[in-house]
Amino acid sequence: MAVTFETKGTDSQTISPVRLVLSNVVSIWLAHWTIILPVLFVTRLLYKRYASPLRRYPGPWLASVSRLWKVLSTASTNTHLQHIELHRKYGRVVRIAPDEVSISSPEAARLVLSAGKHFYKTDFYGVFPPPENPDIFTEVREHVHAQKKKVANVPYSMAAMQQLSPFINDAVELLMTKLSTIAGGQAHDARGPEVDLGAWLHYFAFDVLGEVAFSRSFGFLEQGRDVENAIKTIDNSQRYNGIVGQVPELDYLLRRNPLWKFIPALDTKNALITRMALEELGRRKPFDKESEGRWRGGDGRQDLLASLIKGHLKDPEKFAEGDVFAVAHGAIFAGSDSTASTMQSFFWQVLHDRRIYEKLVSEIDTAVANGTIPPTGNVSWSEGQNLPYFQACLRESMRVRPAVGLNITRIVPPEGAELDGIFFPGGTKVAVNGWVTHRDKATFGEDADIYRPERWTEDEERSRRMDRYMVQFGGGAHVCIGRNLALLEINKVLPRLLRDFRFSLVHPDRQLNAHATFFVVQEGLDVFIEKRV
Ligand code: HEM
To answer: Which residues span the membrane (predicted)?
Structure first.
């Protein structure tokens, strides 16, 4: 029905009811927007808080109405510790965002991370660069991820990694030389000169990746410093990714905003690593089956880049040239801080308890005496496997201080799923954090909060059971692709360091300075160092 009315000096006019309603709404809005806006805002908050199927789960109030709680928690860089506290306070399921819960049950975590259960990655990962050509870590389209991972799995197999062992050995050798020089230098303490062991382990992890991915060293060990601030740049970038990843839409206003490029201080492109990856890619062109992706002027090794080029040549449709770059480049970002953090945690935990340190050194000495490991030179992967207490210390470090500090979050499949005896509707985000699940007393023992390597050696059956619930490398279709490489280098370098040097903490009463960006970046592993052989 139309409304007819007279206007002065004109004929009667007809206004449609839609226009009438609209004009009323606009005038009400203009007159009362200062009241309407807050009312809408509060209604939205209350809706999120009370109308959501997650309303019955406890947690911080802010988290139930907004993702701001997650942003603040991530920005604090203490989110891993906050999650431990949250579960202590609220129980096994905690609401950490309007549409997200964190779970502490290792059984549920295992299910969420299992292959074939259809819990997929959230858009958090899409923020990690490069958005235009996602790599294995950042690709959230599961079928595309599966295609890429199939190609990338080949060079990451333990057999392929073992072939690159000589180049890892070179990096170990260089680390030993550098530390020997430091240990032989002037000391102000009877326990030897001081050294930032954490920094050297970080340089080592980087240089190994350069060798394995591009057959080139980044030069961190050689120069004994963070060359071109590459480590710092990665950390800054990860901090940004971690925070903005909680509200991924923000990325379009920030890093994906074309104006961002004009603020040099905000540019997180890693010059050294990107340049080296591009140079190396250029050197190997044109790609052909004959060279199998290797640089014709090189030592003929089948490095990660070569294997990826080979995979690209086999099926350029499924694994494009951009994927070769993205996956090789992404390996440096995913593999450096993670491996360094694991080794730093190991040393800090072991050195923090002299009983454990002495027991470990005694195992190494006995192994040398009975020929299990050589008295000098490199320790091989299989020799490292014959050191049960060392293996227990390593596992316990990855349990108590896993390298990933942010939650690993997945989406419940559309049909919903039961976790820890509770049904969650499809679309719910479920977060898992190793810092929480690895402290579950029913799984890891009443003393799960403390570092006690013996828990892994007391009972084989129990040790196997605990191992099933460790998520330090994630799980399922997204299990860490670089875990063979990481474990190989760790098993080579740590026993050798313990055999060749004696260490003690400079500040035994201080905690290791740990910031969770995505990985737990650690600083302050200052030690006294003495040569043993
Ligand atoms: C001790 C060292 C390492 C630890 C503790 C570690 C841990 C993890 C974890 C927990 C994930 C799963 C993340 C998630 O689902 O959100 C992951 C994935 C990944 N890691 Fe590692 N990582 C380590 C070393 C490496 C290395 C050396 C590389 C490469 C050279 C690497 C490359 C990757 C990639 C590409 C992914 C994504 C896998 C996928 O989504 O399919 N990591 N890592």
So the answer is: 26-47
